[in-house]
């Protein structure tokens, strides 16, 4: 696995919008402030035009242009790391226009984002064998003040962290509005992790291996396409174990079960050494099925350790998951941590 160089002091942060741009509020103001914060920290910032466009459908602009602008940053040796300007709906169109052969010729580079950005945070490690970072998009760095999780993300970008940890509470109702675009996370709910192995509850657990995953909404549509290189990834790294980290946006528990069933039947979990599930945005029980049982109904008999309701996904804050990197995850019912070994 190629671990790209981390962001150096005074380096260049590229920002592009392969999914939504940052035109409407509160995202525009948060994005603008994030760029100022990066510059005040001594970094150069290079944005692509699609960051400020909204003429696309479910995407910032024409998918071909989005792909071109992403590739222009990736292949530019003066850009050190790339952040996504936002999530969205139809980044799959961008993916169809990405030239992975051209990217393979460039120096490996971290791309960071989450949600719809799974289209790239998942395929860069599985197709190019290059690690990516599943974490909040650029506008989150515009909040005032920064939540601890944002500082943790930045420290990881700069190579100053090999261990990241979760947080005591999380947000269910954001305070961010058009009139208050820089509001920090409103963490009012105490976090409680549910841990199990083979479907039986445990108080502590651990797992290790290569981290792989992202947003289930996107992983499901990638499964079985020409961008599905999971079997090859399993062949390369299955001996080390694959820790799957997964979260959902639009999917309810029934859809979560269908997605996981599809992934298992496609052979994706053959080398699984454990699972980490984030807090689902639409996790309310449907027909008596809750989000926990939605997953356990598919993976219980694999007998692997499972962590539910981790700091991952659409209910912030989130821990940065370095996709493709080797990590050891330890958890109890109150918190979890990931220790990365970027030399493996």
In words, what does this structure look like?
Strand 16 and strand 17 form a beta hairpin. Helix 10 packs parallel to helix 11. Helix content is 27%, strand content 24%. By secondary structure, it is α/β, with parallel strands linked by helices. Strands 6-17-16-11-12-13-14-9-10 form a nine-stranded mixed β-sheet.
Question: What's this entry about, in short?
Answer:
The chain has eleven helices and 17 strands. By secondary structure, the protein is an alpha/beta fold.
Helix-strand blueprint:
Layout: E1 12-16, H1 27-40, E2 44-47, H2 63-74, E3 81-84, H3 92-95, H4 100-105, E4 110-113, H5 118-121, H6 123-128, E5 132-134, H7 148-157, E6 163-165, E7 169-171, E8 187-190, E9 194-197, E10 200-202, E11 204-215, H8 216-222, H9 230-237, E12 242-247, H10 253-265, E13 272-278, H11 291-299, E14 305-310, E15 321-323, E16 326-332, E17 336-341
Parallel strand pairs: 1-2, 1-3, 3-4, 4-5, 11-12, 12-13, 13-14
Antiparallel strand pairs: 5-15, 6-17, 7-8, 9-10, 9-14, 11-16, 16-17
Helix pairs in contact: 8-10, 10-11
- Provide the succession of SSEs: EHEHEHHEHHEHEEEEEEHHEHEHEEEE
Radius of gyration: 19 Å
Give me the count of strands: 17
Provide the spatial order of strands within the biggest beta sheet.
6-17-16-11-12-13-14-9-10
> What is the helical fraction, as a range of percent?
25-40%
Instruction: Give the termini separation.
Output: 8 Å
Structural class: alpha/beta
Question: Could you say which overall geometry the principal axes of the C-alpha atoms support?
Answer: globular
